[in-house]
Specification:
This protein has one domain: Nuclear Transport Factor 2, Chain: A (Roll). It is α+β, with helices and mostly antiparallel strands. Strands 1, 2, 3, 4, 5, 6 and 7 form a 7-stranded mixed sheet that branches. It is built from 3 helices and 7 strands.
Amino acid sequence: MQPARADVVRNSIEAFSRGDFDAALNAFDPDIEWEVSRDLVPDGMTYRGHEGVREFWAGWHQLFHPFRLEIEECTPVGTDSVRVVTRAHGRGAGSGVPVESPRFVQTFEFRSERVVAVRLHAGRRH
C-alpha cells in the first residue's frame, strides 16, 4: 500500500531539513520541475531534474546552518497536489544570527506516485 501523498511530502521536507537530500528526492521524478516564484525571492527561477533541485537546496543550506523547514499546514488539493504552508528557520552561516522566513507555500504536484513538480511562492494562511 502506498503512503498518502501528504505523508510523502512531509517525509521529503523532514529529510531536506536533516540535510538528507537523497531521501528528500526519493519520491521525486528524475525530470522534476522545481519552480521558485519571483514573489518569493527576486532571483526566482525554475530548476530541472534532481541535480537542479540539489543545487537550489545546497544554496540554502550554505547560507543558513542549521536550516530547517517548519510545516504549518499540509493539505491535499484535488487528487494530484498537496499544498504546504511552511516557514524556514536557521542561523546565518557566518553570523550565527537566528533567521525565520515569512510563511511561504509549496505546491507538490503528483503524477501516479511520483512528485513531478514543486512550485514555491509567497503566501499566507488564510
